[in-house]
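Internal QA ticket QA-208
Title: Verify multi-chain structure generation after dependency bump
Assignee: T.L.

Test input:
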Amino acid sequence: MFKKIYPFSAIVGQEELKLALLLNAVNPKIGGVLIRGEKGTAKSTAVRALASLLPEMRMVAGCPFGCDPDDDFRMCARCREAVSNRTIRTQRVQVVTLPLNATEDRVVGGIDFNLAVKKGVRAVLPGLLAKANRSILYVDEVNLLDDHIVDIILDAAASGENRIEREGISFKHPASFILVGTMNPEEGELRPQLMDRFGLCVDVKGEAKPDQRIMLMERRDAFDLAPHEFLKQFERENERIAAQVMTAREQLNAVRLPKHLRTFISELCMENLVAGHRADLVMEQAARAHAVLRQRSEVTTDDITKLAPFVLVHRARNAQPPPPPPPESDRKEEPPETNDANEPDKEPLPDNPPEGRETQQKSGERISGDRQPEPDETNTGDRLDEKKPPEQIFDIGATFTVKKITSPRDRVLRRGSGRRSRTRIALKQGRYIKSAFQDKTGDIALDATLRAAAPHQLKRKNNYGLAVCLKPEDIRGKIREKRIGNFILFLVDASGSMGARGRMAASKGAIMSLLLDAYQKRDKVAMISFRKNGADINLPPTTSVEMAGKLLAEMPVGGRTPLSAGLAKAHEQVRNYLLRDPGARPIAIIITDGKTNVASGDQKPLEEAFDFAAKMAADPRTQYIVVDTEEPGLVSFGLAARLAGILGADYFKIENLKADQLVNVIKERR
Amino acid sequence: MNNTQPIYPFAAIVGQENMKLALILNIINPTLSGVLIRGEKGTAKSTAVRALADILPEIEVFAGDPFQLSPSDESDLLHAFTPVVRQKEASQAKPVKIEKRKVKVVELPVGATEDRVVGTLDLEHALKKGEKRIEPGILAAAHRGILYVDEVNLLDDHVVDVLLDSAAMGVNTIEREGISFSHPARFTLVGTMNPEEGELRPQLLDRFGLCVLIEGVREPEDRVAIMEQRAAFDEDPVGFCKKWEAASRELGERIERAIALYPEVAIERSLLFEIASYCLDVGVDGHRGDIIMLKTAKTLAAWHGRKKVVSADAEAAAELVLPHRVRRQPLQEIGEDVKGLRVKK
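Actual output:
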């Protein structure tokens, strides 16, 4: 339909990406590929270009689910019955796009409205999962996909079939698809379960060599100026690849996998602490596809070592370099491949995965994986011990990915926008995810209403000249959902005691990490610091996290510690915010060591602070988090922990704030 | 075209040369994929975009086609689309008239709902005829035109997702509310924003080809000129527009000449190398920066009536293309001084 698609063969570089896609085209059992990378690296272009290279397959003519005539076990009911008189046609494997705005009924399938009204029959209108059966299901920006739709896809991918149970229809059909997704990790991470469904994962980067970049620019410009000529120029190369894929697919079953290599695969997977067995299976299938693409009839160790990073990078539970040298082969370097699209001077593959893990976090700047937030070695650490000026400004220490912080989900309808906590939404905005009987909001789901009414149309009398007669019982309301950003208040201890031994740098690192997290989730942030004799609002509530970051960098440290004043100020801010938006769920993050030496009133400073804390804990709407900056040393007072206890807050040491990557995230399925 | 409400003419905007240039470049070459205008309130951002209508070139469309298909390129789609939209249901057999009209500026209000943006079920037709028809959304209207989002940073997150989706593909795919349909949606995205109200998501930021930072005019004389012009316009809009008619027409003609010239513009390899190393030096993610910079340089050459790109074009292009693409420390602000960055490294 849309002819002007940039040809696959004209993509400059990105060999890993191209290889991963071709492997999937050859062997559908690999189960797809997740393409991660910075913006503007031909991620989407490559997937769309793949469509014209895909091989043809046999399917039952007229079957909306694209059933395979040679596979009796996975077939829709109709094809199974009509064994004798079914005709067979061939069709290219398709790339079916799942747009981000898809609603449930179109993904799963539902009642055929036209048929229902005209004939009064309940017939199934197949959805995207039906179209994608035995083809490629492609989701651009897959990390932005609604959780709700993700659940459906996970379900179908796990069972290989799609069950429609809605609008009076009960139906199932085969739905085994190759899942291809692209994402930019800057925009947030992907759910681990969904990640695991992708057989392979490639991290793409821009080309670093000017020559390649020039070629790329020239080609793209030529394509935009005269697409038809450009396509013609690359037609032959494209056809060559397509033919290669086609023959490879035919010969795939003939490829042998020696037994000792199976052991090698499982050892590889075990060494990387991969969860589950999918990695092993995927690696085997990918290795077969790779061998057959190289026109070999037997899998070799090279196939496996080459592909291991693709299989393991998104599954490995620690950041160890995944593929160790193969057990019985000493060759480390790959023999030069002739027929390959492989770049000769690419860095050796075994080094790639750990980098991948880091870029996954968010751009290169963050340091992940280390256990302790090290103070910025260059300036803060040693500078402090020598002189102690009253006021200092510390650099921001190393940042990391923080644990997931959300407010508990409930059924309160809210208004707002953001990405942290999911909530049912009261306004007529947010993503329309499904329909239900209720219609309290006046937000009628017209499509669902019509579908509900459709089967009854032949019976109902209609006096208004309209084709469809609606009754109150047909009315369905839209259920919309969106994530709202929370309001996050940072209360930062900026007193002199924080300046000691680079603690402020580490604290700033922690705050910065939280800020980055807040940014990804579109939170509102505010920042209050307390030092000397009082607390200052450094930043009133705003969505501009940039501003908070800038202020944080400039925040001076020094003077005494008026903790109670800080708490009071924080309370004031939170209360004001709640007055304006009673449905909000503010989160107050208090970064302190708990020590205090200035009181606002007559009490002792510490007692006063605890007293305030007890009062603040009375409002259940606010969630508190205390980040303890106290150095683990000989004498520790544990004051921050006590403060957390009184506030009913979650208590973290800085180093505990870090997300333990996959292990942790898997546990808390959102 | 109705002339009931005159628009402030583009040619009469005082100052803001960068912004005007960026907009003009996008008209000449729609594949530059848009411009993001960052700046304070009251700096003629919206005025400039609305005024564009005045100087836009003409394109061919099918009469009454809600999808703005191109008769030369996409005529095959017309027949595929006709049955699914409500217009023209009867006239399918008749040959469709081709008419010329100006490129449109379609506005996407910040409060727009997703269904209006991508298109939705045609309520009236469904109730009256009992058939599903599609009511095309804003993205259909913006095909081959300019999609203008005021305060783009305040746009709802999921609407942004949809925009990204179709901006990336040039195709809008609808899979919702019982409809399954896709149509081409290639548009020039023009957004304005006030950075104080929060930043844009990096992915969306990257979709804007060019980025200009604007601030209020500092020269007292220019400020006086702005006030005078504005007062003159408010007093007698029709007369004011007439006074500027010649200037507007001249600008329009110059743009048309540039459009005709653009395919002939050539660039030397040394300059390509310059562009690539520029992007590498300042550190941009991916390759969109390079591609857009090349196109911008060529468009600039065409705008200046040259058939060859000179290094000044590349320099100027860098300042339009790179500010928002330079890889930043997390949460760092968007820099204005691209050249300085390069020198530092």
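Spot checks passed. Chain A is about 35% helix and 15% strand.
Status: verified.
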